[in-house]
């Protein structure tokens, strides 16, 4: 505003053009100690405000093709329209959206994005078909996914989901999931109310720091939370409107993403230290304030935070870490399966010698849990630790390892410091393992020399290359069959075909935590558990092996058929609830616990089943008798 002295007040009205620079509307403004004449800015009736009236809010805006601007909404609009959290944190200009679409228009989606040779254009075409169906009709999507689970899990989940996460910024189409970023600090408890559902049963959250074996993918990690929850809904009957995929964007150390013009995560290196934990704490408080009974699965947090976060929350909230606990529970179930294939008993786990490549959250989660199972079957802790030989990128880990060895690895270091850093082949020759586990993220790590050496000292070696996606498997099913001369029992993290050796079919199982997390989460949620105990996980492993048919065992399968996923999840859920009751970790108002007490396991099974979402159409309006039947 222009200020004038009070002496010019007399000429106030009617001077100058009404619409011109010298505006007639003047006023008096009291300033400290004196009054001043202030000339307001000129009025221009031709000026049009740039906003329009939008009566919708939140997802309704994003799902309305007329109003939606996707990633181009700026933060003023996001806050006014309750969109904060529903979009990737970085605003993408209109011109970049055009550029991204034109690339796809000209070259097709499979060719827009970098390739992973083990994810074929055919996989990508199928992924696109399913994604587009999911965006327009979830009941139909889940019906089809469930009916074709074995065929389609590799499309919505590993390996294709890995490609999808690597290229999420290029193929992103529709808002799905909650984006929380460092920019939302202090605002999360209100942001969470932008989510449309008033009830949520399960959250899968990642910070994208180690997505499968593909490393740091920043905000693109949301794809893995979405993929996991697709399996929750199809495999365990969680209602699709009652789950929430989340990514917490704390930056990325992935240079190629940071430099990519279409990357829509925060363009900063990862937050670390106290600030990191405070942010995750704020997220936990925010979601638990709105959804106090929700189960939270931590997914693909890098090893430096994964165990610490689990330890931070596991005694207080209904949480688990899938990579540590889900994987371990699955591997234990698979080992029980392999023992059954060999005609041995579960207790014979105490006689196994296990070489593990990879001392990250997955590898060490497995080691700790298998050791626990061995103590359950009679070994002392010391004896159980002796059964393991663990290697990381620097070779065998012994007490002679220089530098800081993480506290969860230290107890499993081999005593003989002279073997420090020994390579895998020498370790296999020395240890004579019965089980070889890969959780290294190094595709092709297991060679013919390794598996031949293993087969020399073991009749039926169990080979478990767990790293995902397919390109990161430590070996393939075909390689295992050839190199063990058909003796190997095989299970890999991502799907592998059965193969034939010497005229005999050799089963290839999938050792993926997808066997456990849906049922575990279902039991914990329907059972109204307060926390998840190790005993509950142990009972999940034990019930997994009970789901394998004799026919499958005779073919060498160490896991049940994936097409049985709903039955498997139901069994696991019931075992988890039973154990939770024993461990006294169910809430006082747990109906499942009451049903168990009143009607036993069969009653519990019917109760849990009745709580599972079935992908069928419900009438949306009252239908008179005879219509729509
Ligand atoms: N099949 C399943 O259900 C699951 C599989 N995984 C897979 O496990 C893998 C590892 O995950 P994290 O432990 O979180 O990763 P991470 O990156 O924390 O750990 C990898 C470990 O492998 C070690 N390593 C690297 N090169 C090696 C080599 N040449 N020989 C031996 N060790 C080597 C590293 O030193 C590190 O200790 C990932 O590929 C992931 O996809 C994880 C969870 C579940
Ligand atoms: C399967 C899984 O959770 C992983 O590879 O990280
Ligand atoms: Mg994972």
Automatic annotation (TrEMBL):
Residues annotated to bind (S)-malate: 210, 468, 512
NCBIfam families per record: PRK13529.1
Similarity comment: family membership: Belongs to the malic enzymes family.
Taxon lineage: Eukaryota, Viridiplantae, Chlorophyta, Chloropicophyceae, Chloropicales
Stored PANTHER family: MALIC ENZYME-RELATED (PTHR23406), NADP-DEPENDENT MALIC ENZYME (PTHR23406:SF32)
Residues covered by the Malic enzyme N-terminal domain: 134-314
GO cellular component terms listed in the entry, alphabetical order: mitochondrion
Cofactor stoichiometry and binding remark: Divalent metal cations. Prefers magnesium or manganese.
GO BP term (any one): malate metabolic process
Annotated active site: 157 (proton donor), 228 (proton acceptor)
Keyword Nucleotide-binding applies: no
The keyword Translocase appears for this protein: no
SMART domains assigned: malic (SM01274), Malic_M (SM00919)
Keywords: Metal-binding, Oxidoreductase
UniProt organism field: Chloropicon primus
Cited CDD domains: NAD_bind_1_malic_enz
Binding site for a divalent metal cation: 299-300, 323
Stored InterPro entries: Aminoacid_DH-like_N_sf, Malic_N_dom, Malic_N_dom_sf, Malic_NAD-bd, Malic_OxRdtase, NAD(P)-bd_dom_sf
Boundaries of every Malic enzyme NAD-binding domain copy: 324-581
GO molecular function: malate dehydrogenase (decarboxylating) (NAD+) activity; metal ion binding; NAD binding
Cofactor: Mn(2+); Mg(2+)
Protein's UniProt name: NAD-dependent malic oxidoreductase
